[in-house]
Design a protein that fits this description.
Layout (H helix, E strand, L loop, with lengths): L2 E11 L16 E16 L4 H4 L3 E6 L5 E9 L2 E7 L7 H6 L1 H4 L5 E16 L5 E14 L6 E11 L6 H12 L3 E2 L5 H8 L37 H24 L5 H18 L6 H36 L10 H24 L2 H15 L11 H25 L4 H28 L1 H39 L5 H31 L1 H4 L1
Antiparallel strand pairs: 1-5, 1-8, 1-9, 2-3, 2-6, 3-4, 4-5, 6-7, 7-8
């Protein structure tokens, strides 16, 4: 069984390789000599080093107190989440799954072996509480692929104690710098080993923009993504937004598998942003190439929605129940809600992990990579963003206006509910289009994003009420069949009806205000 640890550390280089008197660091009462530990780690990656390109490390290590398999994901500079599994001869399935979005069908193989002599010191305060672990590591690196190669170096590593204050690391660094130590140029031992053991001093890591195998594509206008610098053309801006969402799909995959809160929602949003971008900017990206991708994105969003929609609905119903006075709660309503939510979540999450492992999903990621490597750009992609992006966003906004007007003209009821739901979906699409255009268009696009968020919230509350009432009717029927009172479900249903009525009543004024503030887009 794997467990996760947040690792906050800093690395330093020093010409003499020793440590100064660390009792002079503020807050340190004692420095405990913990002796020398011998560590032997083999790092695994694909032949084109896909994990290293993402700053992800996967190793099997013996020696020390935490021998086993370690998988590290970057969180922020100097901060990584380390997922550990017990020592075994082969990579545990649970860790293999967490790198699948990056590795896909490519085999993992040993790429580097690091043998280190770690001289450890514990910095403790006056109460004997551990503040940080400081070690001097003498490292011998050996490349296990290609022509091989070796390297040796010494580094100082300072790792914050669990639940420690990161500001303490600043104090340690100040002391180390005074004695000649300097921050390491490498982000990790593996990064340095890859660089120092390659014959020409560079690594041959691949980005996910250049998959080893890409699906065949129809002939198209050639475009090479800019390696550096700001986007210039309309096509540059759209591709930058597409790339950011593709990266989100890949990076959120491990979090979804681990059931991290909000991760399913974030992945679903990235999926919807991608699909909306392909639909909105059909004048820039050839739909013959993007429409099939859009179909797969629609499928993925629907699968993600099975878990996410249930999560939102469960929280809404729990909150509504908590707001009721005790005199209006009859029967085991809270227990039934909890049982329903847990059963639905367990089933949905199990299905979702299967979807992430499916051939269709992995092929979708490969296809997105290929699309970014050789984008299907149309002639308008070379245009200035101000004209091309504005036209596309305005078109979405015009369609939204028609949907809102139609919904407001309908009497309350099922037809209006459906129309408002369609307006909500178009609101999201308009918002995502404005997000993609914002780096080029600036304030007008940012104002549109804010307006669409506000409208999305209003329409979303209405749609959530529709779904909540449907669920309450189902739960009431189950409770009645079990001989329980359905009274409380009726009370909650009535309150949801009232919430929907308030949202509908607020919509005309909200829409008038939005259109007034967005005249540059509507004229």
């Amino acid at each position: 069984m794997a467990d996760t640890k947040r690792e906050i550390e800093r690395k330093y280089e020093s010409d003499d390789g020793g440590l100064p008197d660390l009792t002079r660091v503020p807050g340190v009462a004692t420095v405990l000599d913990k002796g020398v530990t011998h560590l032997d780690a083999t790092y695994h990656d694909t032949a084109d080093e896909r994990l290293a390109a993402s700053l992800v490390t996967l190793r099997r290590r013996t020696g020390g107190s935490d021998a086993g398999w370690h998988l590290k994901f970057p969180v922020a500079p100097g901060v990584r989440d380390e997922i550990r599994a017990p020592l075994s001869d082969t990579l545990p399935d649970e860790l293999a799954a967490l790198v699948r979005s990056r590795v896909r069908d490519h085999a993992l193989l040993p790429v580097v072996r690091l043998r280190s002599d770690r001289d450890v010191r514990h910095l403790v305060d006056a109460d004997g509480r551990l503040l940080a672990e400081v070690s001097v590591d003498t490292v011998h690196a050996e490349r296990l692929t290609g022509d091989g190669g070796t390297a040796r170096w010494t580094e100082i590593e300072v790792e914050l104690a669990d639940d420690g204050d990161p500001a303490f690391l600043d104090k340690v660094e100040k002391r180390l710098r005074k004695t000649g130590a300097r921050p390491s140029k490498s982000t990790s031992k593996l990064a340095r080993a890859l660089a120092d053991t390659t014959p020409d001093g560079t690594t041959a890591t691949a980005t996910t923009d250049t998959p080893a195998t890409a699906p065949e594509a129809a002939p198209r206008r050639k475009h090479r993504p800019r390696a550096a610098g700001k986007p210039v053309t309309a096509g540059d801006h759209v591709l930058a937004y597409v790339r950011a969402q593709r990266d989100a799909l890949v990076e959120l995959d491990p979090a979804v598998r681990q059931d991290v809160p909000d991760s399913v929602h974030r992945m679903r949003v990235a999926t919807r942003r991608l699909r909306s971008t392909f639909r909105t900017f059909r004048g820039i990206l050839d739909r013959e190439a993007t429409d099939p991708v859009g179909d797969d994105l629609k499928w993925l969003a629907a699968e993600l929605g099975l878990d996410r929609d249930q999560e939102v609905l469960a929280e809404r119903l729990r909150s509504a129940l908590a707001d009721l006075p005790d005199t209006l709660v009859a029967g085991p309503v809270g227990h039934r809600l909890t049982t329903w939510a847990e059963a639905r979540h367990a089933g949905a999450h199990g299905r979702l992990t299967g979807i992430l492992d499916s051939r269709r999903h992995l092929t979708l990621l490969d296809t997105l990579d290929a699309l970014l490597t050789d984008p299907p750009l149309r002639k308008k992609a070379a245009a200035t963003p101000e004209k091309a992006l504005t036209k596309a966003v305005r078109k979405d906004l015009d369609k939204l206006a028609g949907l809102v007007t139609r919904a407001l003209d309908l009497p309350p009821g099922t037809d209006r509910d459906v129309a408002l739901h369609e307006a909500r979906k178009k609101t999201k699409r308009t918002r995502y289009a404005a997000e993609a255009a914002a780096p080029a268009l600036g304030r007008p696009a940012n104002d549109l994003v804010k307006a669409m968020k506000s409208l999305q919230g209003l329409l979303g509350d209405h749609q959530d009420s529709v779904m909540a009432r449907q669920t309450l009717r189902e739960l009431a029927a189950v409770a009645h069949a079990a001989g329980e009172s359905a009274f409380t479900y009726g009370v909650l249903h009535a309150r949801e009806e009232h919430r929907a009525e308030r949202a509908e009543a607020a919509l005309p004024e909200a829409w008038t205000s939005i259109t007034k503030d967005l005249r540059p887009w509507t004229t």
